Amino acid sequence: MPVETWLYFIIGFMILGSIAALELTDLLSAVVAMGMVGLGLAIAFLLLQAPDLALVQFVIEILSVIILIVMLRSTNQRWEEEKEPPAMSILKMAFVAVAMIASLPLFLGLPQFGQPLLEVSSHYLAEGLRETGSPNLLTAIILDYRVYDTLGEAIVIFVSVIGVMTIFRNKRKGGTGNGS
Amino acid sequence: MNFIVKTVTRYTVWLIMLYGMYLVLFGHLNPGGGFVGGLVIALSFIHVTLAFGRSPQAGLPGEAISHNLEVAGAYIYVGIGVIGCALGLPFLTNFLGKGTPFTLLSAGTIPLLNLAITLKVGMGIYLLYLLLVETGHSH
Q1: Is residue A98 part of a domain?
Q2: How many domains does chain A have?
Q3: Vertex A55, ends A51 and A58: CA angle to 5°?
Q4: Is residue A71 located within the same domain as residue A125?
Q5: pLDDT tens column, A122-164
Q6: A interface mutation test: which of B23, B28, B49 has the most A CBs within 10 A?
Q7: A55 vs A76: CA distance, rounded Å
Q8: Is residue A89 part of a domain?
Q9: A91 HSE (CA, 13 A, CB side)
Q10: Which residues of chain A have a CB within 8 Å of the CB of B99?
Q11: Which of B12, B31, B49, B10 is closest to B127 using CA atoms?
């Protein structure tokens, strides 16, 4: 079977998983369904021959499922209590459908799959190994051509860790916060 | 956790950590790199934490040590860039020799930057996990 058939199958699987994650009232099952969506995305990356992305997606998905399950266990809340009225979800679905139809011309105007508009990647493919000495071109791009971007990502992670540390240290020490 | 989980953890966690180190060290040759390698190493730490709890016998870094290692990763990354500046090249230039392609010691500063990102991401994610879980349990 061609890759496109498998991709349609996996994307349908992911859509089903996300609907299940939204609709289940059991929060643990919803977390598992969300993990299913992420692992489907990782398999889709593998089929599109992007092993670096697939690795990152697998690992991030496992990590987020672990953190969500541990948080769920520590809050002792297993079931979703409030449900929105059905009229509201029908209204939201109608809005999403209208937005999809309105954005259809945009998707039809995209360039063909595998024929991007930007030609800079062809230079990386042709000259990357000679200029950087790294056979893994993705590493060559993120740590040589686009090394400032990677510095920016590192700063983003650094700032988020510092933010979480500030919030949780205050909460643990002070006791004046509403959580403790 | 029960006996089965602890035993399985004891036999598998070093394989996970070894795979993370492989991803980091061979990141410029194979799919992988500092980001995903650091995440796999952090997951091996989280694996031990989940199975054995935060007992001192587990020998895992605490919050202070992992924060220091994370900051050290950031300093190494920026330091490599500043060394390039000191040699009269633009910031974060690949100033080392390229070496023979497809060998472990090649591609100039790319493996060093991979190591810095490993410390940064791996220890950062592990620290986030520790903070979130510890505070969740204390209530």
Answers
A1: no
A2: 2
A3: 135
A4: no
A5: 888 888 788 777 888 888 888 888 888 888 888 898 898 888 8
A6: B28
A7: 32
A8: no
A9: 5
A10: 133
A11: B49
Same domain assignment for residues A75 and A13: yes
Task: Tell me the residues of chain B between 58 and 97 that have a Cβ less than 8 Å away from chain A.
Answer: 67, 70, 73-74, 77-78, 81, 92, 94
* Residues of chain B found within 8 Å of residue A147, distances taken between Cβ atoms: 81, 92, 113
**A134 and B121 in contact by Cβ < 8 A?**
no
CB contact under 8 A, A172 and B135: yes
A52: chain B residues, CB-CB within 8 Å: 31-33, 36
pLDDT, tens digit, 9 for 90 and up, residues B11-50: 998 899 999 999 998 888 888 888 899 999 999 988 888 8
Provide block-wise average pLDDT over 10 residues at a time, chain B (139 residues): 85 91 87 87 88 73 84 89 84 78 79 89 88 63
Are B120 and B38 in contact by the 8 Å Cβ rule? The answer is: yes
Give the residue numbers spanning the domain of A57.
1-80
Is 90 exceeded by the pLDDT of residue A99?
A: yes
Residue A50 lies inside a defined structural domain of this protein: yes
